[in-house]
């Protein structure tokens, strides 16, 4: 709707002479008083003008053919936007009390009788123009105030958001600092034990019993370091969506039973009352990852339950899910901590994993792995010293028919394959070669990629163990060259590498390797790999 800065006055009269007289009279004071004049010659035209403009006052003739002044006034005031426009009726007849009442009922504010006295017309019009100007001024002030209020509100929201982001950043920074400090602590402990045990092995006159004990400590602490690295890498992969699950139908109760047997074999369950109820329940999942989940939950229950306490482990089925529940009578979880038990890198005061050592990422990894399987996990506790319960729900599938396991192949000592070890780290190469020699494998060594290719092509071994991060040419290029050479095209190639992401495993196989093993490699996995036939199908072996 077009608008003007000046108030407008609408003059409605069907008589051209009267309309001209009123508009001409009003035009005389228009510049002085500050308004503009609009005219209409019928009630219908007046309504059209009201649709187009806002008016300070309407001078409306009462006696008009078709739609008279009363009907026009009623129509104008029925519209919400024009309901408050003041109307002055103009008439040549002296209105009686009934006419005045009728006019006021239809929104009239006053009457003018013709012939109109100019001074009275100017006075009445000036009042309504001044009122319109004041209303417009108030409206603009209200608009400015509303705009300023909106700006202040937006600024306040921005400040609150920035303060929250700053606090979140500070919490995150503090949590990371605390995590790094905890990581340093967790790494130094096994490193200190390994260093002391290695020093003991080198002491002159050390007893065989002490040496054996030192070797056990080195092995155990090395495995502990490996678990720390694996947990960090697994959590990073899980959070970035880079874990590729190798799903197949499996019975969760069988998997849980196997995990529990491992804890029993290592003596971890000694001193606890372990109650087990395992109902067959089939899910589609990655066995390795679900073993991680189960082991983390059982380990968590053992860690936070004093000796003599009870731990309940159950697998059950409902209509659509298989449910794994691990309950304990341990230290419990406080109400302030309960919502955060699955968070990663939270403050140490609210991290269940850090109270008793550890990196505080085990339960975070559990949640992410379960979610990758399409399941859910939740925790419950009645508070400190009241134990806790962790429950995992995985989508249930129909039971699968299990095939009989294939008999394990053993490699006769007389036919053990010759091995070429291509590794640039002298200590690692020496220890690996010594270990293989202890198992009676013929081993040759090469310190870089080019030397390894030359040694393999000059005297082809049965198996080549190749590090990926080699100087000169890397392990990928070594594999490509050996696959291209007629003498080494069909030899078995096994990658030994610290690179353990799924894309690293894929790249290894694409380069021509038969197998991918992640350092530090469990000797049993390596011996199994060496015992397989050279024509075995390429596969990916899980990290040690």
Task: Explain what this protein looks like in three dimensions.
By secondary structure, the chain is α/β, with parallel strands linked by helices. Among the domains are: 8-116, Rossmann fold; 248-395, Histidine kinase-like ATPase, C-terminal domain (Heat Shock Protein 90); 413-531, Rossmann fold. The chain is 47% helix and 17% strand. The chain is built from 14 helices and 17 strands. It has helices at 16-33, 43-52, 69-78, 97-105, 118-202, 208-239, 252-265, 287-303, 362-372, 426-438, 449-458, 475-484, 502-511, 523-531, and strands at 8-12, 36-40, 57-61, 87-91, 108-113, 248-251, 273-278, 282-285, 310-317, 321-328, 376-380, 388-395, 419-422, 443-446, 463-467, 492-497, 515-518. The strands form four sheets. Strands 2-1-3-4-5 form a five-stranded parallel sheet, sandwiched between helices. Strands 7-9-10-12-11 form a five-stranded mixed sheet. Strands 14-13-15-16-17 form a five-stranded parallel sheet, with helices on both faces. Helix 4 (97-105) links the parallel strand 4 (87-91) and strand 5 (108-113). Helix 2 (43-52) runs parallel beside helix 3 (69-78). It is elongated. The two termini are 77 Å apart.
List keywords for this structure.
544 residues, alpha/beta, Rossmann fold, Heat Shock Protein 90, five-stranded parallel sheet, five-stranded mixed sheet, 14 helices, elongated, disordered C terminus, HisK_dim/P_sf, histidine kinase, HATPase_dom, HATPase_C_sf, coiled coil
